[in-house]
Design goal:
The protein is an alpha+beta fold and about 200 residues long. The chain is built from 4 helices and 14 strands. The protein binds magnesium ion (MG).
């Protein structure tokens, strides 16, 4: 399986990163070794600025290429909560030099994933999600604010890369990204339901 992540998909986050609003989806990938399920996260020693990015995650349910936007909803059945961990200090250096971001984004365990819920139970265009750290709210978002909808993202990515069953699409983070530290307890919520718990060691 592969993990596809969408960047700058919420205007307020693009603003806090001092990035331009994209005119088409921006994406990058993480390998399957980035996935972290229900285990503690050990802070890597190559970064001094590890940032959380809470994101809604689509689980691809059938293979497709060149998927038309109007049919994209048929390619995922479940939505969950994940974190796109980012070594912000390293990413800043990569950006400065115009280099790829993998070192900052695709390292081992950089993609914690929680439980999934069936999409039928949700109003796709109005899903709220939230990250709490040590019980305090740090990031709040709603799918209403997506620049590129889930369907648009699936359609766009599948022009370049065949999607396969089990692939995950991290759909972008809202504003409020910030540093995590050893001892932090992260909790991810979708419409108020806790789907992800993660301790930083
Ligand atoms: Mg992200």
């Amino acid at each position: 399986m592969k993990i596809i992540c969408i960047g700058r998909n919420y205007a307020e986050h693009a603003k806090e990163m001092k990035s331009e609003l994209p005119s088409e989806p921006v994406f990058f990938m993480k390998p399957d070794t980035a996935l972290l399920k229900e285990e503690d996260f050990y802070l890597p020693n190559f970064t001094k600025e590890l940032h959380h990015e809470i994101e809604l995650v689509l689980k691809i349910s059938k293979a497709g290429k060149h998927i038309e936007e109007q049919f994209a909803y048929k390619y995922y059945e479940e939505i969950g909560i994940g974190i796109d961990f980012t070594a912000r200090d390293i990413q800043a250096k990569c950006k400065e030099k115009g280099l790829p971001w993998e070192k900052a984004k695709a390292f081992d365990n950089s993609a914690p994933i929680g439980k999934f819920v069936k999409k039928e139970s949700l109003d796709i265009n109005n899903i709220s999600f939230e990250l709490k750290i040590n019980g305090e709210s740090r990031q709040k978002g709603t799918s209403k604010d997506l620049i590129f909808s889930f369907d648009k993202v699936i359609s766009y990515v599948s022009k370049f890369i065949t999607l396969k069953t089990g692939d995950l699409i991290y759909t972008g983070t809202p504003e409020g990204v910030g540093q995590v530290n050893i001892g932090d307890k992260l909790e991810g919520f979708l419409n108020g339901e806790k789907l992800l718990t993660l301790s930083i060691k």
